[in-house]
Give the backbone structure.
Amino acid sequence: MTVRLSTRVQRVSLSANAAAKSRVTQLREAGRDILDLTTGEPDFDTPQHIKQAAYAAIAAGATKYTPTPGVKALRLAVQRKLAQENRLEYPLSSIVIANGAKQIIFNAFAATLDDGDEVLVPTPYWPSFPDSVRFNGGEPVFIECGLEQGCKLLPTQLEQHITERTRWLILNGPGNPSGAVYSEAELHALADVLRRHPHVLILLDELYEHIRFDGRPPQSLLNIAPDLLDRSLLVGGVSKTYAMTGWRIGFGVGPKNLTEAMAVVQSQSTSGASSVGQAAALAAYNGGLDFLVEQVAAYQLRRDILVKSLEAVEGLEVLEPQGGFFVFVRCAGLLGRHRPDGLRIDNDEDVVAWLLEEGVAGVAGSAYGLSPWFRLSIATATESVAEAGRRIATACGSLR
Ligand SMILES: Cc1ncc(COP(=O)(O)O)c(C=O)c1O
């Protein structure tokens, strides 16, 4: 029997990333040598002291339900982290913990959107932003931010797209897939526009806040414009910084009535996040960031290697990432060319399919709302990144 599905679920789709990943698995099982540059998670292991804290928590009996907005000790640690790392002061009542940043974002839209409400989504975007909006009855309003503007939203574009129905603007920095980071001046300019439209809430996704290159310190819109704090939801978590994607812990901080409503949504879906995951996240926030220096240096080295090799390829234009896990590449120059087997390359999906045949898996820009581009992950071994650069150069060189 084929079950009739809700219209709500039909508005969203399985992530393109998951699809790309399963294609890699299939090909590898068939014996092919594929470099997987699709992943959005660190290749590093969760630090040992964090794992130890989780073992200790289990031994001490932290195996029961947790309060829906999160264990108090973890919320206090997040409060302290925000004060020390981000120079932002929040009351405890403004802090909510969930099963990953993804659930925080979902809960925020579930708690605030009515049918037809608009959410401004700068493009390229992380695909869960628009799908989470759609699932919750809202309408994503896409704002194309191309190469010439460094894939960053311009204040004029923001002004043009705000309507009476706009509920949220999403800002993600360092960006997935672009790696773009807004400068202080750019944040000032966006803040000026937002001040003119007090009905617009701001969702700041800063999950990659500590993965920044060239010595850039974390910088949030809220440091530049603290007056926007009371209508912003700051989203963060341990997934990327502490190599803890599988532990599923994220946080949101924002206006008290919003975070309380988000906890109500969560109380009817998953309840409080895992007791063990929260104990591990507590150790992460209490343990400092020293271990990360080496990892960020590794990401930066891989970025440099990949950017250098792709910049030399005719037909590709590379946006040098300033943070995050990805290199985003424009491939308009390859369209209309022919592969050695005669097939014509018409779009970024054709480019990605061709590169997969040549042994490199990436994800087409269409998955992030911007074509013709493709995304490559640098959260994988340095040798694989270097070899991927070589394979792409050879493959592109064979196009006619
Ligand atoms: C921009 C962005 N936000 C949120 C998430 C979700 O993070 P979490 O693992 O904490 O749910 C991701 C994961 O890929 C991401 O890239």
